[in-house]
Amino acid sequence: MKISINNIWDKVIQWSLYAAVFMAPVLFLPWTADQVVWNKQFVLIILILLSLTAWLIKSIVKGEIVYVKDHLNWVLLALVFSAGLSAFLSGSRSLGFLGSTGAEVGSFLSLSVLVISFFLVGLVSYINSLGFVLLIGSALATLVSLLQMAGVWIFPWDFTKTVVFNTIGTHNAAALFLGFFFIVVFASIYFKNNFLGKMPRLALMV
Q: What is the pLDDT of residues 85-127, one digit of tens each?
């Protein structure tokens, strides 16, 4: 069976996005100083940039650029531009563009990756599958958080043996995430697949 070059790049995009949406809620690494946020950001940046690179190569090979026309794109581009300008004019450009430990999410790089993710997710035809993968990852993260709150330690590392540990990030972030997760679950049940396909973009916006 002959596989075209475009199909290969499509698969790279697909599995990079699958990996990104699954690992976003659950990823943490015990071997670094910041076990959750920094590692999560680093891996997601790699996966999203890999997906973006595959999309660009596919566009060059096909000789056309496919994108979703949406007024929200201009709003997001303006947000990225303002964040970049703010980082450029700040006293510490490296912190503005890359962020610092504990404040990575507000950096220009993190914001750009989230906007790119939003753009790429809007292009794919398997958005329901992405929503389902994100739902599985979110369910695992929710289960870990609930077990930790109940004092059930499922990981062997000392830093995880506390009720405030979770795979999302801070305690407040975990509380917000749990609320979002339960809303999505109930909405998915009520609206069936119509809502599940919207979940990845809604999560990125939140």
A: 877 777 676 666 666 555 555 677 878 888 888 888 877 777 7
Give the Cα separation of 27 and 169 in Å (integer): 10
Using alpha carbons, select from 21, 40, 56, 12 the residue that is nearest to residue 127. 21
3-state helix, strand, coil in the chain (%, to 5): 70, 0, 30
- Residue-wise pLDDT for 42-82, tens only, equals 888 899 999 999 988 888 888 777 767 777 777 888 888 88
Residue owning tokens 């540990």:
165
Cα 146 to chain centroid, rounded = 22
The number of residues making up the chain comes to: 206
Q: Which residues contact 177 (CB under 8 A, 6 or more apart)?
A: 25, 138, 141, 142, 145, 168
